[in-house]
Amino acid sequence: MGKAKCYLLGAQETTANSVSKFVRNGLLWPIKCGDFEVSIMQPELEQTVEAVIARHRNDLGALMPVLHDLQHQYSCIPKAAIPLIAAGMNLSRAEVQGVIGFYHDFRMQPHGRVVVQLCRAEACQAMGSRQLEAHAKASLGIGYGETTADGQFTLEPVYCLGNCACTPSIRIGDDIHARVTPERFDELIEAHGVGQGAVR
User: Fold this and answer.
1) Which of 24, 137, 153, 194 is the most exposed place for a label (fewest CB within 10 A)?
2) Model's pTM, two decimal places?
3) What burial letters (b/e) apply to 59-78, b meaning 16+ CB within 10 Å?
C-alpha cells in the first residue's frame, strides 16, 4: 500500500510523513489526507508552554504574564495552547479563553509584519480620526482586526495613545505619529511596505 497523499489546505501537496514541516508557530494547521481532515500540533508547543508557566508561576496574577510571554513568542496565543495553559495553571479552559477575549491586546491569530493602530478616543474623533479611519480601511482593503492578504499590515483600533494635543494620532509598531492626514497615512504605510525591517 502506497503512502497516502496529504494536502495542507491552501498550500502545496505533501505526504503523511512530511506534514510536520508545515506547522508554524505552534498553530494547528488542517491537513486533508484522502477524505479525512486532521490537525497536527508542533511538538515544541507543549514544552514552550510548560517553560513559560514555570517562568511566571510565582508572579502576581500569573496568567497575564504567561499569555503576554506566549504572544511575544508566537505573535498570537495559539489555540492549541489554551488547554495546556489551563492544565498547567489549574484553571478551566473557559477562564483562560475569557481573559484572552476580554483584553483586546491578546490575539488568537498572527498579526501582520506591521501593526497599525488608529486612535478612536474622543479628542482624535473631534479632529478627524473617523475620516482617517475610513481612508485607512479603504487604502489597506481591510477592517479592524484584519490583516492584508500579503501579511504585511494588521489594522487595530486603540482608545488613546496619550497624544491628545496632536490629534489625530496613530501608532505603527512602537512609533506614534501625530496630526496624521490621509496623505501622511499613505506616506507612512509606503515607508513600512515590502522590504522594510520588521516592526513590532
Assistant:
1) 194
2) 0.59
3) eeebbebbbbbbbeebbbbb
